Amino acid sequence: MLVLTRKTGQEIIIDGDIRVTVTSIGDGRVKIGISAPPHIKVDRAEVAARIAAEEADADVLVCG
């Protein structure tokens, strides 16, 4: 894992076309903005886990 220190307004660039921008810092939390090409899916971890579980359930129904 790469750990970086950034200030509000500063960015991290991933693979040349994904930008992670620190939009605000305060009250024990950091807000970030993510810009990525349309073919790159960006989800929060809990959303990605829910989608994966729903897809696994659908596969069981189709295959089972």
UniProtKB/TrEMBL annotation:
The keyword Membrane does not apply. Pfam families: CsrA (PF02599). Its main location: cytoplasm. It is found in: Cytoplasm. GO terms for cellular component: cytosol. GO terms for molecular function: mRNA 5'-UTR binding. Keywords: Bacterial flagellum biogenesis, Cytoplasm, Repressor, RNA-binding, Translation regulation. Homodimer; the beta-strands of each monomer intercalate to form a hydrophobic core, while the alpha-helices form wings that extend away from the core. Belongs to the CsrA/RsmA family. This is Translational regulator CsrA.
